[in-house]
Amino acid sequence: MAYKVLVVDDEPSNLHVMRTILQDQYTLIFAKSGERAIELTIQQRPDLILLDIMMPGMNGYEVCRALKNEKAVSHIPIIIVSALDEYQSEVEGLKRGAADFLIKPVSPELVKSRVANLLGEARATIMQENYQLVINQIAAVAALHNNYVEISAPRIAKFCEWLSVKYGLTKSKAEDVGLAYPLCQIGELWDDGGNNTTAESRSLLLLSEATKGFACVAVTLLTYKNTRWDGSGFPEIEADKIPEECRVVTVAEAIDREIESHEGSVSDRVKGAIETVSQEAGTLADPRLIHILDENSDELSHLYFDWLSSPWPTPILPINEF
Question: Are 29 and 4 a contacting pair, CB within 8 Å?
Answer without folding.
Answer: yes
